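3.2 Worked example (two chains)
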Amino acid sequence: MTIKELQPSAIWGYFYDITQIPRPSKKEQRILAYLLDFAKQHNLEAKQDKAGNILITKPATKGREDAPTVILQAHVDMVCEKNADVTHDFDNDPIETIIEGDWIKANGTTLGADNGIGVAAQLSLLAADDIAHGKIEALFTVDEETGLTGAYSLEKDFLSGNILINLDTEEEGEVYIGCAGGKGTRAYFKYKEKEAPKKYFWFRVEVKGLRGGHSGSDIDSGLGNANKILTRFLHSLMRKKYDLILSEIGGGNLHNAIPREAHAILGVKERYKEDIRVKLNTFLADVQEEYRQTEPNLDIHLESVQIPSTVINRKAAEKLILALYACPHGVIGMSRDIHGLVETSTNLASVKMIDNHLIEVGTSQRSSVESQKDYVVNMVSSLFNLAGAKVTHSEGYPGWKPNPDSSILKLAEDVYKALYNKKAKVKAIHAGLECGLFLEKYPNLDMISIGPDMTDVHSPDEKMKISSVGKFWDYLVKIVEAV
């Protein structure tokens, strides 16, 4: 079976089209051109703002002219992650999809269901001629994954409706009414290059096999962080007798993904090479036992390499390793208002050697409480300042405070009960949605967020439950009709 044979055919057909269009964050030109062409083909009004956001408007059907306008919103970009052994050019190659039972995934890359399925749902509603509705405004935002740029730049007079349905959550049957705010913290370590000493055992150590995941919604899942695991091993080698030397280090990629892989190239005195192998085997057994439930494929590989041309000076390497070892990762605090909701967290996302003899450490902090977000940002910043790094911050984005008295929430609850004879779960999410930024410019918006079942988003294991897409579609249609 292929995507085009799945039901409902309209939404799956558009999702297939979307998988064929490369759309990395900040490189969304082709998907935006596709949307404008779609509007032209369906004789729908479309406009685009300076940031690239597109709004396609569909008039009310006959007899529904007085119904409230409904804004449907999704972002067009996708997280681009792949397994190390997969050859894929996200700038040019389509996503290769695989159907396994009731799930659809990609072949070694992210699927892009986050948020391609939301875009597909918007297009299906805009194209449909058998759904009764008031005026629909379909908002397609850009660059959600790396900076929320589209939501930040949205103009205050771009939208006219006061009801917004965000299509960017990942659990069918759950209605989200709040989300965390976030901020990125980066640290830059300056180092000097030194000539690599002779008569050393040089080796590459690599942490791999981790699942990865979303740094918000998966932060409490007990997943391993490749950067933290690698640093634990490096820290254990910093005994003077080994005379550890660091030549190269790297791990992780995106600020909103828990890193799956990390590596370092190291040297120790030749006589200690067997000690290192024994130490690694012991360390690997320990961490595999720690993560046996959540990371069954965790592995650490060691192989000898040729002597590198240069190494990082000792003082800088020690400061970096100590800082990474001490840097917090994971849940900082749970919500006191909503049972089971992570309130505050931080993610040690990436370590990269960049130009000008700098090592960049990327982290991201989230909280549904603004003061707690500031607290954890300052905690991470203080650590890196003490280590002598230069610290910078992203602009950050606000959270979306839940409104349990929301009118669209009440309607959505009634619709779900009528459709499936059970209650929808009303939740807030520990992840960044664009809704908080929309509220800053449109304070009268009444909002909910819904979506189908997805797992392992922001990683190559991302997959979407096929049967849940049909339920999500039926639910969305009935909400729009009920409004």
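3.2.1 Second chain
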Amino acid sequence: MSGLLYQLRDDFPDQLRLARANVLSNFATAQQYGVRGAPTVLIFHKGRLVKRWSVRIDVDELYAVLEGLLELPPPAPAS
């Protein structure tokens, strides 16, 4: 899971805030969001939970959701 977080950080520089939480140390938060298995990925946009994956994370869908939510910069001009 850590590898995926690092990849997201590198692929979306300055566009995401990523956080990891240990469900045993943060039981109340895990319970608040219905986390029942690990790994679980929660995506929030403007303070609202918009998507979740539990245990089996579809990386292609994860990227598609992020690209749809983020205001991506225009492509660099061709040289």
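3.3 Remarks
The longest strand covers residues 48-54.
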